[in-house]
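Record pair follows.
FIRST:
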Amino acid sequence: MTVDAEILQTITQMPEPLKQEVLHYAKYLIENYSKVTAEEKISQKKRRSGILKGTFVLPLPDDFDAPLEDFKEYME
């Protein structure tokens, strides 16, 4: 028995209020599935290597490791 036939057979045995619940849930699943697949397509953008090249200045300044003025009280 196929899934479609089994679903149809099960639904035909249900009372009307349960059929309404199944219908609402099926529509909910379809709506959420379409959102998930759309988000997956968006998030699968290909990464580009070297995109940050040239944004870091080297060599570092001589006082790079020196304590900051803002933390002077904390360091005492």
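SECOND:
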Amino acid sequence: MSLSMYQASVPVFVRALTNLHHVLKLGEKHAKDKGVDDATMLQVRLIPDMLPLVKQVQIATDMAKNGTARLAGVDPLKFDDNETSFAELYARLDRAIDYIKSFKPEQIDGSETRAIVLKTRNGELNFEGQAYLLHYVLPNMFFHCTTAYDILRVAGTHIGKQDFIGKP
């Protein structure tokens, strides 16, 4: 049996965002134990020219929710990027997960050749559905999930590979 576009996207997105929620919880606990407020922790960066923790989470959720919607051929649900606390990030993650779970396999399956056009600040990107998922959305989502994890690790949070990957 072959892997469907739905199986290669929705469950993967849900798992990644659920695990991101988990590592953020551990990061929040670490910050509170060390007396670091949310506003400070959410602005931590790996290096000065990289985006802060809050932006990494925002982009990871956008990649997953927007990717799902575009594969289904619908306009993505818009989120404001205005989170200033861990609680607001958890709400964003939960909202993204619920949105992604609302899509049915029949909306995503068969999207391998669906034309997807993204307008970016560097111009237009044109994809077919399978390339969009495998070569754009998944790598971007995992990059931002990993970067959020790395920021929390560098900040001293006691997390490991299993926290990132989750339980099988």
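COMMENT: The chain has one domain: 5-165.
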